[in-house]
Structures are given as structure tokens and as C-alpha cells.
Amino acid sequence: MKKYIFFSISFLLILCHGCNKNRNYSSLQPDTIVTSPTDIRLGTKHNTLRGVTLTWQSSETDDCIRWGYTTDYEFGEFAGERRDAYHRYLYDFTFPILKPLSQIHYSIKSAGQWRQDKVFTTSADTLSENFTFIVGGDSKVGESDDTDARWRTISNLIANEQADFFIHLGDVVRYNDYWPYWETYFEYGRNLLEKKITFYAWGNHEYGSLALYNSILPGNKKWYSFTQGNALFIFLLSEDDFTIQYDWLVEQLKNTDKEWIIVNFHRPFFTRGSHRHEMDAYRESWWKAFDDYGVDIVLSSHTHSYIRTYPLNLNISSVMVCKEYGSKNNQGRLEFVSGGLGGENSVASEDWFTAKAYSGLHYIKFNINGKKLHFDAFTSSNTLVDSLTMFSQGTSYPD
């Protein structure tokens, strides 16, 4: 049985001044609760149970947090780790290893007062081969009032889904270095971002120092990987450092024994419109590694529509599709383009590689259960756009 460590001496050493670990929280009166701080979100330094970190923004200099598996906040009160921000302060608090599929209660103390109780549910066990995640990209907050409103709509829908984590495929905001866009992104998406750990594959619009500063991610935050159950998730940066990443990518692929390999980055190899050929120069490196080492799923966005490709294997043909999805030499990769989190819609047009296309707000929900993977793509009106069940040994695409 896996052993979970709920606290450590290091946590006891960072108890904040004025925070009393033994306080009886059930006796607190409603008039002690305030509504700030803001921009609360969940990230992680390692995986979905280890290194889980809560980040928030505050104008105060001594914020604290209390937490537990109940509203007694039985693990006590701790100082947030403060860092200077471009606007006010950011605070981080990293939980000890968390129990799977459990409710975490927490409250933040700011300006000497506690805000209301908040709750999130932890993921499935990181060894479990049955888990769910949601994917989408191109919220592009700050592009227009309509774009911001669409992000609020679609993020609220995703928040209501049962999922272990969320993957944002990039173009989070319109410009990296404009802090108010980030505040709007966190505020409008708060029902999602406060409840689900978010992993990012950075895009051309937001990648930069502020994106990295605003996020808690594994590794160097630019490209990284983590495992969940029997799946390896790899995140690449399609903006820079392609050669360095290629060497790192090959090492990741050579050294995994996971049943499923899922690679995430912003710019797609196969798409339509003005972005069509942006990744052609990396077919002989990145995509060849996908084919050589049997990547199952490639997730991207950039084009503001939905595309699911037929099975693609450039070792076999650059103009014809394969008969089956899968990881074997004679099978092909499944690439998704999912740019439907709010940015202005692109026309979803057909091409030789296109199995399904849709223009409009959408997200994709995946479930992995052992050697079976199922996905559903939903619109903002909860209409099913696309759906398929795949098996790791191979899956013929529907006629």
C-alpha cells in the first residue's frame, strides 16, 4: 500500500507569525471573512499529487493559509511563500503529498482576516490506470470582450466536468507582458483554475517571462514531462530551442515503458490556413521521433478550430494516411488541433489528413482506462462533436 505523508518538519518550520496551529476554526464567525485575495490557481512542481501548489495574488505582505481534509483545517496554518510580482505580490503554498480522490479544504488569511472556505478534489492515484483529463487551447484573453466572455463560458463548462487535471495548449492571453490580461484570465476562469491542476504548453502569444512567472510547472516550465498511471505526458515548446528539446524528447521516448505516450505543444504539424506549414522544418526531427518511438496522441492548438487527423506516419507516407491508429511501425499518430477556448473562430476546412473538423468553442475530454483510451469533444452548448474509443494495440479509424 502506498504511504502518504501528510506533514513534515519543514512545514512546521514555516508556520507564520500570527497563525495559531491549534486554533478552533469551527468557532469562526462569518464577519471575519473577506473576499480577497485574487487570481487563485492550482499548479504542481511534480505530478498531480506530489508538489501540488496553490498560488494567489495579494496586496498584503504576510498572507497565511490553513488547510485540511475537513473544515477543521487539521493540518494547521502556514505562511505563504511571497514573491514580488509585477503588480502587488504573488504567494505560493506547496502541499505535502496528497491523498488521491479526496477533498482539500483551505482558507487564506489576508489583512488579518480569513477568507471563505474553498475546496478542490485531488486526482486519482498517480499509479491508477483509470483517470480523466481535459484539453483545449487558445483562450487568448484580452483579444476582445467577446473573447473574454467566451473563455468564461467554456471554462465554467470544463469546471463542472469530473477530471483529474486540465491541459491548456497555449495562447492563454493576447500578450505575454500585459498583466491585466493575466488577471482577467485567472478571474474569468477561476471556477476551473481554482479546482483543477493546470498544465501549460506555451504558445506564441503568451510565452515569455510573465507566463513562466505566473505558473507552477514541473522541470524548467518551458518543456517538461510527468507520468499519470500508465501514460507519459510530454510538453514541448514550439517557439524556441528546437534542437535542445529534440535531444531531450528522444531521451524521454527511449526511456519510457508507459502504455500511452501523449505529446503536447502549441503549433500543429497538420492544420489549415495561415499556420499550415509552420512546423514543416521539424518533420525530420520532432515528428520523426514521434513515428520512430510510437507516440500515440499529439495535442496542439494555434488554429482556432477542431481537427482530428487520420492516422499519420511520415516514415510511411507524407501524403497518405495509415489504416490504424497506434504505436507500432505500421500504425499512425493521432494529432488533434484544439483551439476552441475563446479566441475568434477559424474556418474548419477539410484536407487529406482530416478525419473530423469543427469551428466553434469546444474542449476535449479524455479517459484512459488500462489499454483503452476514449475521448469526447464537446461544444459550448454541450453538443458532442466527435468521439472515439482507441486501444493501445491499434485502432482502425471509422469509415
CATH class of the largest domain: Alpha Beta
User: Which oligomeric state applies?
Assistant: single chain
Biggest sheet record: 7 strands, mixed
Determine the structural class based on helices, strands and strand pairing: alpha+beta
CATH topology descriptor of the largest domain: Purple Acid Phosphatase, chain A, domain 2
Low-confidence stretches: 1-18, 20-35
The neighbouring-strand order within the major sheet is 14-15-16-17-20-18-21
Question: Can you describe what's shown?
Answer:
This protein is of the alpha+beta class and 399 residues long. The chain has 2 domains: 9-121, Immunoglobulin-like (Sandwich); 130-396, 4-Layer Sandwich (Purple Acid Phosphatase, chain A, domain 2). The protein has 7 helices and 25 strands. It has helices at residues 9-13, 145-159, 179-188, 190-193, 209-213, 242-254, 283-293; strands spanning 33-34, 38-44, 52-58, 64-68, 77-79, 81-84, 89-94, 103-110, 113-115, 118-121, 130-136, 165-168, 198-200, 224-228, 231-235, 260-264, 297-300, 306-309, 324-325, 334-338, 354-358, 362-369, 372-379, 384-391, 395-396. The strands form 5 sheets. A 7-stranded mixed sheet has the order 14-15-16-17-20-18-21, with helices on one face. Strands 1, 4, 5, 8, 9 and 10 form a 6-stranded mixed sheet that branches. It has a 6-stranded mixed sheet with strand order 13-12-11-22-23-24, with no helix packed on it. Helix 6 links the parallel strand 15 (231-235) and strand 16.
